[in-house]
Specification:
The complex is a heterodimer of chains A (155) and B (147). Chain A is globular, with a radius of gyration of 17 Å. Chain A has 155 residues and is of the alpha/beta class. In chain A, the strands form two sheets. Chain A has a five-stranded parallel β-sheet with strand order 1-6-5-2-4. Chain A contains seven helices and seven strands. In chain A, strand 5 (105-109), helix 6 (117-128) and strand 6 (132-136) form a beta-alpha-beta unit. Helices cover 43% and strands 15% of the residues of chain A. In chain A, 37% of the residues are buried. The longest helix of chain A has 14 residues, at 2-15. By secondary structure, chain B is mainly α. Chain B has helices at 2-32, 34-42, 49-72, 76-99, 118-138. In chain B, helix 1 (2-32) packs antiparallel against helix 3, helix 1 crosses helix 5 (118-138) and helix 3 (49-72) packs antiparallel against helix 4 (76-99). Chain B is elongated, with a radius of gyration of 16 Å. The chains are: A alpha/beta (155), B mainly alpha (147). The A-B interface holds A 1, 4-5, 7-9, 11-13, 15-16, 19-20, 23-24, 32-35, 38, 42-47, 49, 112-116, 119, 123, 135, 137 and B 31, 33-36, 38-39, 42-43, 45, 48-50, 53-54, 56-62, 64-66, 69, 75, 78-79, 81-82, 103, 105, 112-115.
Chain lengths: 155, 147
């Protein structure tokens, strides 16, 4: 039993070496495969890597949502991102829904590794009827480390 | 008596190959898209960020290899033991999502598709667990491609 598990784990690590290395160092590489936005109306959150969200940002094909506290957002955020902090979601959501059509692609991020606020905000938006929601797990730290455009007080 | 023995033999064969195919299928889908599977693992909110990817990189291979071994009939009891252990773990994880009120997809097979409820996934896993336990109890170790 142990031999089978060890063999499988070793193969898995070797097979995904690049991905694991990039995630560990906080840099999902450009070559990392990222899921495409599906045309299906399946109501699920879609994990997305840096390469895909960068493309969406470049082509202005998605609205970026910052799920962190508004004070943190003010210090620095992805260029063009809208602040929608989890803590203030109840009060901010209505205004957001009036501004953004339901069919819009949304990219939600927070403080990167281990932060779940983006998923919680994403789930609330799914409940409200948005269908194309990508979760950028690397979040602001990965975006900033990659030298991509940011704005805010401490940029 | 002989008919009964034959019936039991074919029942075990069906169970073994069937369970193997399920796990090869499940593993193959996840091996193809580890990032999406990492997203499913992360939705359980139990692991730090990197470990979601580590689990997503390794568990599908355990499923794939155990499934293959079950199909070819090599190291059946060991593979069934691993499958049973994984299913117990999956059931515990799914139960935890119900207790924590998490409405997430189980991430069992296709990632990012239709959502499978935790209760259905638990029932399915109990079925797989039962099959694996029967194989552990009844299956004798044989050579490759044997009945």
């Amino acid at each position: 039993m142990t031999v089978i598990v060890l063999l499988a784990v070793t193969i898995g690590i070797i097979w995904n070496y690049r991905l694991l290395r990039d995630v560990y160092t906080g840099k999902l590489s450009e070559g990392t495969p990222a899921p495409k936005i599906s045309a299906s109306p399946a109501a699920v959150l879609i994990p997305a890597g840096l390469a895909q969200v960068k493309e969406l940002h470049d082509k202005k094909e998605a609205v970026f949502i910052d799920a962190r506290e508004s004070s943190v957002y003010s210090r620095g955020h992805i260029q063009g991102a809208t602040s929608l902090p989890l803590a203030a979601l109840d009060s901010d959501l209505q205004a957001f829904m009036e501004k953004v059509p339901y069919e819009t692609n949304l990219v939600i991020y927070c403080s990167g590794y281990g932060c779940h606020d983006s998923k919680d905000v994403g789930n609330r938006l799914l409940q409200k009827g948005f269908r194309q929601i990508l979760i950028f797990d690397g979040g602001y730290p990965e975006w900033k480390d990659a030298g991509l455009p940011i704005e805010g007080a401490n940029q | 008596m002989r008919i009964r023995k034959n019936a039991q033999r074919y029942f075990l064969l069906t169970l073994r190959v069937g369970l193997g195919l399920v796990f090869v299928y499940a593993g193959f889908l996840k091996v193809r898209d580890p990032i999406a599977f990492a997203g499913s693992v992360a939705a359980y909110k139990l692991l730090p960020y990197f470990f979601n990817y580590l689990v997503a990189a390794t568990i599908p291979w355990v499923e794939l290899i155990c499934g293959t071994l079950l199909i070819i009939g090599y190291r059946v009891r060991a593979s069934a033991g691993i499958v049973a252990t994984m299913n117990i773990l999956f059931i515990a994880l799914l139960a935890s999502t119900i207790m924590r009120g998490l409405d997430i997809d189980c991430g069992c097979f296709r990632q990012g598709g239709e959502k499978t409820s935790a209760w259905i996934a638990i029932l399915r896993d109990i079925l797989f667990l039962s099959a694996a336990l029967i194989l552990i109890a009844e299956q004798k170790e044989r050579k490759f491609f044997s009945l």
